[in-house]
Fold:
Amino acid sequence: MSDELAAPQSKVRVAVVFGGRSSEHAISCVTAGSVLKVLDPERYEVVPVGISTDGRWVLAEGLGEQLAITDGALPPRIDETSGALVTMAADPTARELTVHEPGTVPKVLGDVDVVLPLLHGPYGEDGTLQGMLELAGVPYVGSGVLASAVGMDKDVMKRLLAASGLPVGPYFALRAKQWDTGEGRARVLASVAELGYPVFVKPARAGSSMGISKVHDETELAAAIEFAREHDPKLVVEGMLTGREIEVGVLAGRDGGRAEASVPAELKVLGGHEFYDFEAKYLDGTTAVQLPAQLTEEQTAEIQRLAVEAFEALECEGLSRVDFFLLDEGGFVINEINTMPGFTTTSMFPQMWAASGVSYAELVDRLITDALSRPSGLR
Structure:
């Protein structure tokens, strides 16, 4: 470990936390690689902390160039060989990281001013890490415990959006025990038939298009449910929406002002993909982006209004990306909200804000500044 990390600094000390226990581990690493490149060394002292798939925290120095998708291959996973083990106490009087190296006395790395959690999926984006940081009294980028948990669960998210008068598509939630009994399976089949094929079967609490299947008829349903259950025992089954896929980025307002929406972008999936799946999103370059989306002024104003209202309905903080369908028959429907959207340089959230006049580096600075301005605890 370098002496520079241990030395007191007047710079803001940022712990960039990435990896994690979810199936989105690799995408989180890619996000971290992009962010680490733009953090200004004159302003920030960066402490890169990787979380392995079994939950170990390690001091992940020197991994920057490995944290990228190269020739279609995802980066290697964080594990115990990636660096010395690190712990953070859930103690608001000691906002410290402690390094544990074999054969040595644990060494205090120093206080952390703010955490930039670049984790996607369960055990990172779902309120669990946010709860730990609240206990530790450490400021962090992004939504708090409630919004993070709600935003991760597509079922609860849709229920709260609908309760707020926001438009969502037809769907129902499904637990494993419902599918595993004859009576329950019959009810599921009836509910799917009511939605009408095709339907989409998704893990309720996963992202990056993991575990999603488009189901064309009843013969494909069982396999789709088993595939989704590899990621989550809770599923959602969504009715098919026919229209254009439009996304909007939202940032918390400056100085306590109202949240702001980016220019919208449209996604067009090419190359034989039936929907925006993991390969189309990250690996094979078959997704075309129209930025800004070709919308009327009235449509742009409407989708930006809905995006901000969704952000506020779930009590989000920091940032979110809201995904919509512009239906063929007219009108917008909210598909989902992401409280920690993909954040690589090619991800939609940074691209939309770049088109709105906020560069990637400025975006990261703004998020850290926002986090430092918020109190921990109830707010």
User: Anything to note?
Assistant: The first helix runs from residue 3 to 6. Confidence is low (pLDDT under 50) at residues 1-8, 280-284. The longest strand covers residues 243-251. The chain is about 30% helix and 25% strand.
